[in-house]
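[job 4417] fold queue: 2 targets
>>> target A
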Amino acid sequence: MKIYIITGAPNTYKSSVIRALTGVRNSATFNVQFLSGIFKTHVMITSCNEIRYKQFPNGISQEQLIQIIQSLPPSVEVVMIALRSSRPVNGIGAEVYIERLNQAGYEIMPVVMFNDTITLPTNVQGVVIPSNKSIPSNLTASKIRKIWAIV
């Protein structure tokens, strides 16, 4: 399974860009067209480490994220998530989630980091791009489409 991650501070439009990339308004599983084919993709719109649901009052922990991914149907080949790189609800930054996903053996595609750099595992690549309210989400999404080979 391939994991696509966008990281950034609060209000860097991570979720808006994921919506622009995929056309998905809510977290769910959809077909997404990549250059290499159409893949069943589970899209998580809200940053895992800032989600507040009844079952996750303090955000989703790294282990809960792994459990969520493992519970997806076998037909899901891609997971796309956003992670806060600073000031997350649960106090755990994006680096910790990425390291845990890496340890679990998931293939982490180049991490897109909005406006700042985070420490990535040695086998994970990353790219920093600007994102803020003055840059339309669709323009940022067009840059990411090239990085992630999304049609």
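>>> target B
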Amino acid sequence: MRKISTQNLKAGMKLAKAIYSSRGGLIMPAGIELSSEYVDKLNTAGVGEVYIDDPRVADLEIIEPISEVTKLKAIRCLKESYVLLQKGTGPKVDFESLRQVVKEILEDVNRNNPKVVNLITIKSDEDYLFVHAINVTILAVVMARLAGYQQHLMDIALGAYLKDLGMARLDQQVINAPRTFTGDETAMIRRHPEISLEIIQDMTGLSAFTKAIIIQHHERCDGTGYPTGLKESHIHDYAKIVAIADTFAALISDRPHRARIKPHEAIEFMMSAAGFEFDHNFTDCFCKCTVPYPVGTMVQLNSGEKGVVVDLGKGLASRPVVRVFYDSGGQEVKPCYNLNLSDGQYQTKIITEALEE
């Protein structure tokens, strides 16, 4: 299987993985052959990327960090909490359900033990905050393990998952506006860490570590963050970890006011901010569990050859194993062949672009 943008789907392709709505409803089953009508349906549903069967990479298996069941449950639980918070009346948020979902996310991550995190594709603006929360939780947990913080993974996961609850109490029309925010709107949105902290005060048994993450996840080591402009040692380590995970997950997601950037571009940005906005040591942990060209990504080489990343290899993350589908002239090659870009014989070949086709 391989990943492809829904905008580049063609009739006749087959889905390798089933697609579900955030409510758990089946949008389209695995194995179905796509017609032009089905392609239109996926685009209308806001599905950004899908996995398709491709005989050229039939041996390729892409492991997700959490199960589909856990993912859908986590989206649904957080969405229900947002609805209650937006109403401001009626039943209180079910914090125990939220805690249980976080526990299941943590159990899945520990069971699957991903060395590299494949973040979940955000299917629509409506689901952004919920899928984003899951992505940040997964990445923060893997980073925290690498940093040696196994004893407080649940506290870190809870902080990552609950940190944006305050967004539910803000003007949703502003949050989802397809334009740059005004100064007043930016100031409003920057209140969400404090509002989130107020909301979770009723949640019994929440540690000081989790609360620090919630209030500090937008602080920056150079003092340019918010809400209080803390610097360096005044920011808790766990909040520094979540800040990195939060920023990266946001950069690679489409938002109404800006388009996403590709993973390799986002990683470059994160590395450029290391030692300034972000803690240098935790940025190193981030770089160890993220890769610029995840397995299943179509890429183009400087030679003009195109193919799919089939293995991350054991060398530099920017030099994986690529299975070449098309030669430098754009002609399909049969049979396909693998290029391990870490091998010395291919040292002049580099990936120049990640493709969505």
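[job 4417] complete. Note on B: The mean pLDDT is 91.
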